[in-house]
Design goal:
CATH topology of the largest domain: D-Maltodextrin-Binding Protein, domain 2
Distance between the termini: 36 Å
Helix content: 25-40%
Mean pLDDT: 88
Shape: elongated
Strand content: 15-25%
Structural class: alpha/beta
Length: 332
């Protein structure tokens, strides 16, 4: 399995071309299947889609799968005008995005693909941060925050300036973090280093002893030799994100499902249909390899059924899903 790409040259147009693998056949047509599948969106979901596309290319080498990384919001902008077949999303679709897509007669099938624990990260040599509370994170990241140094966060910590790193405003990770920590999506202080490329954030935090940032769990796992993860106290004591705590919901409030959104008209094309069915049938075995947590088997079965029956609309948008079983949402 290829490692997560270490440098994305241009986030708005970064494209990974998959589909030049081996020549195995399967019951859906094997090498006879051809065409293209256009995917864009979240850098958080990118490693999963990359892994699926790589394996899919071994079965269907004549299908060209392109995977762009313009952020969840950037991907939805393209999706809403019918420019792409699938959007990778690290948060549910927003009401305004649903409205824009509807205005262009673009529907969507919402498919959860994995769990992620949005991770708070400091430099590997940081020896004073043992954990952070939700309230301390709010104090740091709220609009108009007066926190400049570590001692402003907690007494006894160094009187050294904190260098903050976070995803750009088109990122679903940014949306989720600001809603969970500051109470409303996009509400945040503005004086931090932003990038839609999580690898840029990794490099920034790894290069500054007094830094602090956040991004998806997979990027921490890929770079844990040079980063330190911070346990978060959401009210029941400090908990670090792990496969177990993300899956069982004890890592709160920063555990979340992540998604792909499929255009049902695109899904009628044989190559897109084959790709999505392959995605939902094989993701469970691939997500852990790229640092995420697999969903229960029943969720993948229900999600595949939603696609095959072209069930459109969102069961996650605008809802508080903390503590709610995903399979219950999908069967409502």
């Amino acid at each position: 399995m290829k490692r997560i790409i270490t440098q994305l040259i241009s986030l708005s147009v970064a494209v990974l071309i998959i589909g030049c693998g081996g020549g195995n056949s399967d019951s859906s047509g094997g090498n006879a299947l051809s065409g293209y599948v256009k995917v864009d969106g979240s850098s958080t979901v990118f490693p999963i889609t990359e892994a699926v596309a790589e394996e899919f290319g071994k079965v269907h080498p004549k299908v060209r799968v392109t995977v762009g990384v313009s952020g969840t919001g950037g991907g939805f902008k393209k999706y809403a005008i019918g420019e792409i077949d699938i959007n990778d999303a690290s948060r549910p679709i927003k009401g305004k995005e649903i409205k824009k897509a509807s205005e262009n007669n673009v529907a969507f099938i919402e498919l959860p693909v994995a769990f992620d624990g949005l991770s708070v990260i400091v430099n590997k040599s940081n020896d004073w941060v043992d954990y952070l509370t939700k309230e301390e994170l709010h104090k740091i990241w709220k609009p108009g925050s007066t926190v400049k140094t570590w001692v402003d966060v907690r007494e006894g910590w160094p009187n050294e300036e904190i260098k903050l790193y976070g995803p750009g405003t088109d990122s679903g990770t940014f949306d989720y973090f600001t809603e969970a920590i500051n109470g409303k999506s996009q509400v945040c202080r503005s004086d931090f280093s932003k990038s839609e490329d999580d690898n840029v954030l990794v490099q920034g935090i790894a290069g500054d002893k007094h830094s602090l940032g956040f991004f998806g769990f997979a990027y921490y796992k890929e770079n844990k030799d040079k980063l330190k993860i911070v346990p978060i106290d959401g009210g029941d004591g400090p908990v670090a994100p792990t496969e177990t705590t993300i899956n069982n919901g004890t890592y709160q409030p920063l555990s979340r499902p992540i998604f792909i959104y499929v255009n049902p008209e695109s899904g009628k094309r044989p190559e897109v249909k084959a790709f999505v069915e392959f995605y939902m049938s094989n993701t469970k075995h691939l997500v852990s390899e790229v640092g995420y947590v697999a969903l229960p088997d029943k969720v993948y079965e229900l999600a595949l059924g939603r696609f095959q029956n072209s069930i459109t609309g969102s069961v996650f948008s605008g809802k508080n899903t903390v503590g709610v079983k995903i399979e219950n949402l999908l069967t409502e």
